[in-house]
Amino acid sequence: MRLVSVIAAAHRRQVAAAARRRKSRGQFLYYNASKLLEARSAGVAKQYVLTVMAANRVGILAALSNALDELRGSFVDVNQAVMRQYFTIIMSAEFPDDRQPEVIVDHIRDVCRPFGVEVMLQDPQADAVVESLGDRPPSQQYLLRLAGTDRPGVLRRVSHRLAQDGIDVIDLYGERQDQFGTFTSCLQLDVPQGVDVATLHRDLDQMLRPEGIAVSLFHDRVLQAISHPESPLSQRRGSFR
């Protein structure tokens, strides 16, 4: 059936996006590796989460990189995307311990002034958002696909139901088909061990099916089997359509 192909395509998009993010992170980390190691070895590095947004224009990333270099900042992790011609980047970056947050924000705004950037800087330690990995229970990944009539409040209700089981949404893809009044959304879920996935699927289906929204829930292993070019499922996809 065609659903198998759609799910496989969604999974491939997520894998490709993750690969692009890893490549981007690798390029930034390579560029800043010497400064990062130097700061860490001296014990003077402080880490912040930095978000920058602006209308997308050529050169904005170069300007941001220059600003961080002048601040002696180093990328640790970074995700960047352009959506509807709007540039957004969120990163974890390290700066010298004596670099004040106000100085960081003001300097980035000044260097990137031609692009009209919006800058937000957060200190994970001050905001108490650091979570020990040891405190997280074992989990498995699933892909949740929603497709059907576009209605307000769908994501709100779904996310509330997921939160009841402590399920984290670690990736989200969605698009709306205005000409048909429909939408498609794929959510990659981190599901704690012990959650009754069958009950979750049933609850979501009962919640959304009366409104013309189909719900599909697949374990990551199934998606990998479907997406792998040498998988029997992948080779037989044509017969399912």
Overview of this structure, please?
This protein is an alpha+beta fold and 241 residues long. The chain has 2 domains: 36-122, Alpha-Beta Plaits; 138-240, ACT domain (Alpha-Beta Plaits), CATH 3.30.70. It has 8 helices and 8 strands; from the N terminus they run H-E-H-E-E-H-E-E-H-E-E-H-E-H-H-H. The strands form 2 sheets. The chain has a 4-stranded antiparallel beta sheet. Helix 1 (2-42) packs across helix 6 (220-227), helix 2 packs antiparallel against helix 3 (101-111) and helix 4 (154-164) runs antiparallel to helix 5 (197-208). 19% of the residues are buried.
Helical segment tally? 8
Strand numbers in spatial order across the main sheet: 2-3-1-4
β content, as a range?
A: 25-35%
Overall spatial form? globular
Q: Count the E strands.
A: 8
**Helix content bin:** 40-55%
Structural class, from secondary structure content?
alpha+beta
Q: What is the CATH T-level topology of the largest domain?
A: Alpha-Beta Plaits
Evaluate the radius of gyration.
21 Å
Structural domain count: 2
Oligomer category = single chain
What's the mean pLDDT score? 79
The CATH architecture of the largest domain: 2-Layer Sandwich
Q: Identify the CATH class of the largest domain.
A: Alpha Beta
Distance from N terminus to C terminus (CA atoms, Å) equals 4 Å
Let me know the largest β-sheet.
Answer: 4 strands, antiparallel
